[in-house]
């Protein structure tokens, strides 16, 4: 591997440094050495010189490596669904260079040994994998974890994601304690008593299909509670996968009065509605459920005005044994790493989101929400870079999915904008074939 | 192939009159008889035959319909389930002489199905068969007891019996199979 | 005119013309059931599997009798656990069933959508015998047929459906069926049991029982599951009976020749008083007779003919 790499003539778009210009990026020792506008760059490129790799990005979009702060990599415990290695491979194909993995593994990542195991697996992975520790032991919602030790071992945030923290008292303590540790709590906001046996969004579609519904207020009420607790404790709260208009409104109001709350939205929640459940496709079953047009409108508005800072995939691999079963019994969630960029870019093409805002929401914004160093190609930063061919069209095919699981409603869908090359620390980890 | 009329209104009338006499002669009167037509046109002919017998004897004969559809042997090979027709057995058929009336006797499969249907309703003393037209090409050992007219045909020909009550005109026409536009005439075996 | 689909998954998929064809065919089969020998050889050699994931005596028996009167071989399979619990995919379930070479599988399942999911994998005909709170098409067809026989029409009738609309597949199928044939459908019940957006299926929601049954030609009383009380959908069965139960007093508001349907079994004294249940308006026994005829008609129309058969 060359010690020196130059990416030439790409449209370099990095909201973290306010750059959007056709530029050459010089990489040395795995870090960004310099960025020069191509038009005025007269440095000799030493074409073919030993030790210099030239990547021609003419006509391509060059952005900081994408950051996904919400994935489920299933290792340890559910390796038949995904492993750190296969999940990282999928991430690389999706243009992500840093991904965070949730704690709902088996055993749960609620102690240092599990954290260290994940990080050990991550050493040989294609992209940077950072673990999220559990809020409560065994995700049981009874006792908070040793957040200090987990941070020490390498956890970058805390979440019981997959399960809400039902006990308000425990959530209060968790926000207080984690504030002392200097890490954010990521909330899976959902009031279980309002969900009950619900399996999809509550509305005319659930009524027609005869499926028990989950009302928006199940999410709204829990977001409201957690915001109030964050306000009380001064803790750092990050709301995972916001799916409702009410949730966006609550977060916007909280941010306006200075509560330390950030939020993310998943690509499927801004591209699909609950009518996708018609036909009982379990790949349209997720938690939170697919909502309605009005919610999508509000979520995109929140993305545009910054209320929802980040886009995160909630990549949730499941095998056929969890998905090809009765709708009510099917597991929640879909894989998302490989389709995220193209799906969100569809909104840019529709004029509903700016490209700059999109890139921000997939790079620097999630990095800041969790307090990570990545998401920027400022000089001196690790050379995590993604090159995208915005003009390329591609069709999602089960056979070419790199994730170990194929549970996605997008198979057969043609999308525009394709990740061309993914570079982690100056090293190419993925090139589109 | 050109369509040709092989029987007109008068011809049909005469044939039914003759069959009425033959039925009475053979069965020694009308007292034990029940006449059952195979819908759609066999049923209309059954009504005509019953009227004619009543004209002669002055007694009304029980008349009804026997729909053989559910007893057909081609339900599983036809493209779709054929429409069901009228089943109307007006009287206990045990120990009676049932006269099945159909418009065209061809392969014999419809009559076989009709006889099986009747067996589910009782045990007739005898079953006799009357057909306005016998066009030949039997595929089962079935023979009509009363025939209006024998018309030798080829397999590619179609015989259409038109009756005023259904078709607005009384006639029997031989044409090519394609020319049969009325689907109700098409599902004859 | 044949039916469009190889399967019978819900009234939602049926046009008014298709429903009329089913009713006309069922009338013919009623005649067969009235005979001394109640059997025709029509579906001889055909195999029908009754696959019931949920206990049901009445519906299963009705399908079984219908199959036998058509001379089909009927096999009953009762399953007490879902595919998910068994660790089997629906595709595996479908493959195992198909290995038995059935011509038709009648599926009852507690989880909405399962018959439709199985039908995607199966080449043979699938008939939905009730799936969760989704649809119960044969029940709605027999209900509508019963009304059609008594009233001579469906169009222009006022049909009131009262009770637990939320958890009722019978209600959903009947709302769609009656409204599609031109009836005015009104539903009512405790607000906790009226699902959001039910109007989109083709009905209006009345605030109380009297408003719903005022001038109604048909009243359908849904069975109330006794456990709804524990789920806080209802404060008590006593109050339910007072507010939503049908008795002679409330019945006075209905049209003089009103008829009453109940998918049974009845909770006497709860959703329907004994006097009303046994009264002259009640057609509960006709519903049972028509149920067999409707199911024979479905077997005939779906299995008679070569279309998509796996045999």
User: What is the C-level CATH assignment of the largest domain in chain C?
Assistant: Alpha Beta
Mean pLDDT of chain B: 91
Number of domains of chain B: 1
**Low-confidence runs of chain B:** 179-189
Structural class of chain B: alpha/beta
The amount of beta strand of chain C, in percent, is 5-15%
Class by alpha and beta content of chain C:
alpha/beta
Distance between the first and last residues' Cα of chain C: 23 Å
Helix content of chain B: 25-40%
Query: What would you call the quaternary organization?
Result: heterotrimer
What does this structure look like?
The complex is a heterotrimer of chains A (about 425), B (about 190) and C (about 300). With about 425 residues, chain A is of the alpha/beta class. Chain A is about 30% helix and about 25% strand. Chain A contains 13 helices and 18 strands. Chain A has helices at about 85-95, 110-120, 145-155, 170-180, 190-195, 205-210, 215-235, 245-255, 295-305, 320-325, 340-350, 355-360, 365-370, and strands spanning about 5-15, 20-30, 30-35, 50-55, 60-65, 65-70, 95-100, 130, 160, 185, 200, 215, 235-240, 260-265, 310, 385-395, 415-425, 425-430. In chain A, strand 9 (about 160), helix 4 (about 170-180) and strand 10 (about 185) form a beta-alpha-beta unit. Chain B has one domain: Rossmann fold. Chain B has helices at about 10-25, 40-55, 110-120, 165, 185, and strands at about 5, 35, 65, 95-105, 125-135, 145-150, 155-160, 170-175. In chain B, helix 1 crosses helix 2 (about 40-55). Chain C has 2 domains: about 10-135 and about 290-305, Rossmann fold (3-Layer(aba) Sandwich), CATH 3.40.50; about 135-285, Rossmann fold, CATH 3.40.50.1370. Chain C is about 40% helix and about 15% strand. In chain C, strand 1, helix 2 and strand 2 form a beta-alpha-beta unit. In chain C, helix 4 packs across helix 5 (about 115-120), helix 6 crosses helix 7 and helix 6 crosses helix 12. Chains in contact: A-C, B-C. The interface between A and C is medium-sized, with 23 and 29 residues.
